[in-house]
């Protein structure tokens, strides 16, 4: 029962994350995969499905593609997206997707890990219903702890569509109590804690919650630095003779540039992808381009640049054959021609986390 009672640091952490994201409650978990699993199995029963995209964090893609299939989930009960998708860094229109989902009486779940705990993006404010978050990366930053969290937006009506009997019908594990009737708009966070956490047990350790609280103290400072350095690195790569292409949503020619400026005014995030290998001959010969993903740290930008310069020299990179024309579409066509066709069988090798 300790899993749902929680030591003191955990509720404080949950409350702060909930406030940062604009939710009504939160449930901290051992990892974000545990959080995703709990949310999705609360929305979908065997025989129902959720809609997502293949442009997902690799671990999530596999959880959905392989593990979730065991539950024979079919018949849509949720939509699942990420704030900034991998590796194109596309930024979905959360407001528009939510409007469509709500028309069909189903909730929208957003993995906001790249949204940095609300610093860059607040999906609940844009219309999404549930946010999940890996705390392991930008929330903690210190690398001492692992964890995830679910934040309940508190505006999804679990009753009118009639699609969620787990919320409206008497709960077996709670003497016939009905979660929607008892907890109203906090039904999801109540059910996650009382049902899933009690029965499955993937809780966050209170010590990790305490460490994540230390991380939150500097979230805004770090968020600013990550975004500034990543944009500077993207621009430096763009001009670098050994770099063939670079994708970052705050580069002017990225297809989502205007949308990103509007929905993420604080910056484009701390991750970019770039390629160094291909010349046209190699691509024609079927050699796939090398995609490198960088999660930019807090070091002084000159040090970051120096590290890359050293690495380029160490691997003996020659000047790349620069792409002519529209860089976004050129980079996309490299993806589409090559290994990005099937993420399941040929996932890119990320650098950093
Ligand atoms: C890292 C990451 C995850 C996995 O997080 P864990 O806490 O390690 O389970 C999921 N989604 C995104 C977008 C990530 O970056």
Automatic annotation (TrEMBL):
Transmembrane segments: none annotated. Keywords: Pyridoxal phosphate, Transferase. It holds the Pfam family Cys_Met_Meta_PP. GO terms for molecular function: transferase activity. It comes from the Eukaryota. Its cofactor is pyridoxal 5'-phosphate. InterPro entries: Cys/Met-Metab_PyrdxlP-dep_enz (IPR000277), OAc-hSer/O-AcSer_sulfhydrylase (IPR006235), PyrdxlP-dep_Trfase (IPR015424), PyrdxlP-dep_Trfase_major (IPR015421), PyrdxlP-dep_Trfase_small (IPR015422). Belongs to the trans-sulfuration enzymes family. This is Pyridoxal phosphate-dependent transferase.
């Amino acid at each position: 029962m300790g899993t749902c009672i929680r030591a003191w640091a955990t509720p404080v952490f949950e409350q702060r994350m909930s406030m940062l994201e604009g939710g009504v409650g939160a449930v901290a978990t051992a990892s974000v995969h545990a959080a995703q699993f709990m949310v999705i199995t609360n929305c979908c029963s065997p025989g129902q499905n959720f809609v997502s995209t293949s442009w997902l964090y690799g671990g999530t893609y596999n959880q959905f593609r392989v593990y979730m299939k065991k539950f024979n989930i079919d018949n849509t009960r949720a939509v699942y997206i990420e704030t900034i998708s991998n590796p194109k860094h596309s930024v979905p229109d959360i407001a528009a997707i939510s409007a469509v989902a709500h028309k069909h009486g189903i909730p929208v779940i957003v993995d906001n890990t790249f949204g940095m705990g609300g610093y860059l993006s607040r999906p609940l404010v844009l219309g999404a219903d549930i946010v999940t978050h890996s705390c392991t990366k930008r929330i903690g930053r210190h690398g001492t702890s692992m964890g995830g969290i679910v934040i309940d937006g508190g505006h999804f009506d679990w009753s009118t569509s009639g699609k969620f009997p787990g919320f409206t019908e008497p709960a077996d594990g709670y003497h016939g109590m009905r979660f929607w009737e008892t907890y109203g708009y906090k039904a999801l966070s109540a059910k996650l804690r009382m049902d899933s956490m009690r029965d499955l047990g993937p809780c966050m350790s209170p010590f990790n919650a305490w460490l994540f609280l230390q991380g939150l103290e500097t979230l805004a400072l770090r968020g600013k630095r990550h975004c500034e350095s990543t944009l500077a690195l993207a621009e430096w790569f763009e001009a670098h003779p050994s770099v063939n292409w670079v994708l970052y949503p705050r580069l002017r020619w990225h297809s989502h540039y205007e949308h990103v400026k509007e929905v993420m005014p604080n910056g484009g995030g701390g991750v970019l992808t770039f390629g160094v290998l291909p010349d046209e001959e190699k691509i024609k010969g079927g050699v796939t381009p090398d995609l490198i993903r960088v999660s930019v740290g807090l070091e002084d930008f000159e040090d970051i640049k120096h590290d890359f310069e050293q690495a380029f020299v160490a691997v003996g990179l020659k000047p790349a054959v620069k792409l002519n024309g529209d860089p976004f579409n050129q980079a996309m066509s490299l993806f589409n021609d090559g290994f990005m066709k099937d993420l399941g069988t040929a996932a890119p090798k990320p650098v950093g986390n």
